Amino acid sequence: MRRTLTENVLILGAGLVGSSLGLALTRAGYDVVLWDIAASHALVAAGLGAGRVSDESTDNPDVVVVATPPDVIPGLVAEVLEKFPDAVITDVGSVKAPILRAIDRLAPEHRRYVGSHPMAGSQFTGPLTASGDLFRDRTWVVTPEPENAPADIAVIEKLARDVGARVVTMPAAEHDVAVAQVSHVPHLMSILTASHLRQVPQDNLQLAGQGIRDVTRIAGSDPSMWRQILTSNASAVRHELLEVAQDLAFLIDQLERPEQLEKFLGMGQAGALSLVGKHGQDPIDVLEVTVEIPDEPRALARLFTDIGEAGFNVEDFELTHDQIRQLGYLSISVEREVAEQLRANIVERGWHAWSGSRK
Ligand SMILES: NC(=O)c1ccc[n+]([C@@H]2O[C@H](COP(=O)([O-])OP(=O)(O)OC[C@H]3O[C@@H](n4cnc5c(N)ncnc54)[C@H](O)[C@@H]3O)[C@@H](O)[C@H]2O)c1
Ligand SMILES: O=C(O)C(=O)C[C@]1(C(=O)O)C=C[C@@H](O)C=C1
Fold first, then answer.
1. Which tens digit of pLDDT belongs to each residue from 214-228?
2. What's the complex ipTM?
3. Number of domains in the chain
């Protein structure tokens, strides 16, 4: 009979994610056992406090987490499904549907496998770069299938919550489209920017500041790991890249058209703001303040400068146009308790603004 209290977790793959999970679960009171094809990785992880090294003969886990590179996940899941007939199995692979299809071929009876993916990591690999706080306040996606038992899904969701993550549940195919948009294409944009630097003369590189470092951090990631991620999600990634290619062609055409260019830059700002408050924290309680935007060059930029100088944090905004008057309306969402201060502040700076949306 399945144990109801999850205490023993076996982690296969004691790299960045596996060791971070070991650290976080150990801290949360779980008994963690580690195994890695590179024995030194499991030893180092254990030395850091991520669990103890598996001796294989006595392993009797309630849960097995496969935290290896994606290509070897299906084979390992099939192996542990057979080896531990009472355990719930999950993995942390970055693409879900292809892993599920491969497991389907290798182990048709796989109802104890519940796929998952923590949206937390870094450009580094191996146990020495692990952190017990990696999953805190981050999203952990669980991708159950209809044949999974609710109790097994609950075990994986609890494990994610016990390491401080916020659980989001969605079908594997939807997950793969979403990560193409928020993880895989952004990764490639970083790679494009970083690889372009190879053509920049050494003398010019010494001018590099923080901006380029922010944009290229994830380009330092392991190419072999990302080759596996991207090839297995190629069709969703291709779809997004074609859209980006259209945007790039459009942008090149707008470079000498100041108004169009500013509009395009504003879309970037809006895109960046759409991520605010979406890192797993509780949603922020917001209120809208609407500002009339005169149809004149740089009006929008001036307003954002005023808001920035006044020290307000904009959570979101939307621009609409008046069909009759030559005006725009910018609805700005800010934290409820500062909305009235924001309205008063920008009115003082000469803007026509009111609380609430444009009616
Ligand atoms: N790095 C990230 O940002 C990140 C974030 C979320 C999920 N993931 C996913 O997590 C998984 C692990 O990534 P990572 O960043 O921890 O990589 P990593 O290289 O740091 O760790 C992978 C570990 O797996 C071990 N390994 C390889 N083949 C094995 C096998 N057959 N059996 C047992 N161990 C084996 C390696 O020796 C290594 O210790 C990947 O599937 C990746 O898609 C990565
Ligand atoms: O923060 C980073 O370094 C990451 O790239 C982490 C990141 C991401 O894109 O958010 C990368 C791949 C994983 O599948 C999940 C998380």
1. 999 999 999 999 999
2. 0.99
3. 3
